[in-house]
User: What shape does this take?
Amino acid sequence: MSVGVVICLAGGTAAWAALRPDTPSYRLASAEKADVTQTASLAGTVASATRSDRAFQVSGTVSGVDVKVGDKVTAGQTLATLDASTLNDEVTQSQQAVTTAQQKLNDDLASQTSSASTSTSSTADAAAATDAPDDALATATFVAAATPTKSSANSTIAADVKAVQAAQAALIDLYTGTSGVDAVTNDVKAQLTAVQATLTGLGDSNGACAVFTALPAGTDQATADTDLTACQDAVTAALSSTDAGDTSTSVAEALTQLGTELSALNELQTKITAAESALDNAVTKLQNDADAAGQSSGSSPSSPSTPTKPSAGGSGSSSGGSGTSGAPSRSGSAPSEGSTGSGSGNGTGTGTGSRSGNGSGSSSGGSTGTKTTQVATAEDIVSDQASLASAQANLAVAQQNVGLATLTTPIAGTVAAVGISAGSSVSAGSTSEVISVIGDDGWVIDTSATASAIGPLKVGQTADVTVSGVSGTQHAKVSSIGFLNTATDSSTPSYDVTLSITDPASGLLNGASARTTVDVDTARDVLTVPSSAVHLGTGNSYTVDVLADGKETSRTVKVGAVGSDRVQITSGLSAGDQVVLADLSSTVSSDSSSTSSTGGGLGGLGGGTRVPGTGGGFGGGGFGGGNFQPRQGG
Assistant: This one.
């Protein structure tokens, strides 16, 4: 029996070989008008549209937690609090630091004038401190000799003091004045932030340039030009808009103003350097004039201190100078006033006249020479100003931290997780010590797409969604498409895609798996061919084999929408053209490895090779195509 079967099979094979036509036989299809719908399948997870993971932004000990999992909360409601005692102590310490820094600045400012004032006043005090003489004529002589020098010195010192004070005020005004460094810097920061926010918005998922920046490779030139023009128009409109800070100033004008203010900052720095030098020079002149006034008062014989009444057997002494002459009609000579500086000397005077006795005279002019005052420089003043600003900033931070001791929710919703407890210590900005609140305003699907699949996706496209554990089909729209590669493997980049569920059903849960089918493109009444007729060539080019006058030729075509079984042809074919689906006259050996690749679809095309008798087209994970098996006959 088996022998007979073998003979029959052998005979059938021989008969088929003998009857097989000599000319090739093809399975053909016509290029014809039809509707094509292109879809993309994405897998993702369900999540609340809004979610807030709240963590303390300052370290401390939790004093109380006011919510638990499942609680409903309103926006602004308190979730937890920290023990604020330590934070209040930091505020007190910061206030003390500000007071100390302010006092240091005040002291250094005062030091630049006080030393000179002390030098000039000491000489006058020395003369006033001595006893009045018994002889009016002698008193008149001493005063007349001293007055011109003292008046001249005081007027010079007074002018110097005013010059120092004016230089101090000018230097500080360059920092804190209405046109100073602080004011210009704050204005630059505010305008720059507003301009950046306006221009950055153009590239957001809903921005005018989002479509152009997301154009896939191979987009026709007309479409690219249209999207580019739209983006350029949006940029031009943004540059002339009035959204950057001041409502009366356009973005372009704001950018020009920023350049002007940056130049102003450079000019201010130059002025500050000059002001520091001017203040140093004023302080130096004040010190030099004060020293000169003191030296002149201490060494000149024309400005002696008044001696006391002579007493018998007394001796006169002076610190800083000596006098040896005595008037014949008086007993005792006047020692001169000591100059500013350290030094000592004994002065005695004796004489004979109508009165007898030795007079003694003393002067305190040299007493100021043992004290040295440290005068602050302009650099010291600038350093003090910086220290004060730093202390004030630290105080502001400490005061803000007290407010951060109360943790609130910015959204209304349901408490989903509580990661802290009363008495526990938390660190600032922790990612684990949080209280999570999910909003009640909708659901989204978080997914991702590879670089090859991201091109056709656009914000606003609709999708059907199937959620695990939830009956029925949900509907969604693509709400955002990421620009950054989120894959850890650089060889297969992927990009985040978010879809918003438009009519959420009850029973949706965070983290549930979802399968989405996005309607990427729909073309109606367009020229199409079966997907198995299209072959992917090199450089993202496509070809179709056409049978004309009994000959098979390859034509380059351009494709549009790619459906599950048909592909839109935008150029290269005409309606009625006969395209080759399979060459039925070719034999397929039983051990041919190519027979394993019978799955259809454009994604399965490669190298322009078509498996004889199969639908070797767009397979490989995207868009399903035909799957034609070899069969006998036409």
The chain has a mean pLDDT of 73. The radius of gyration is 49 Å.
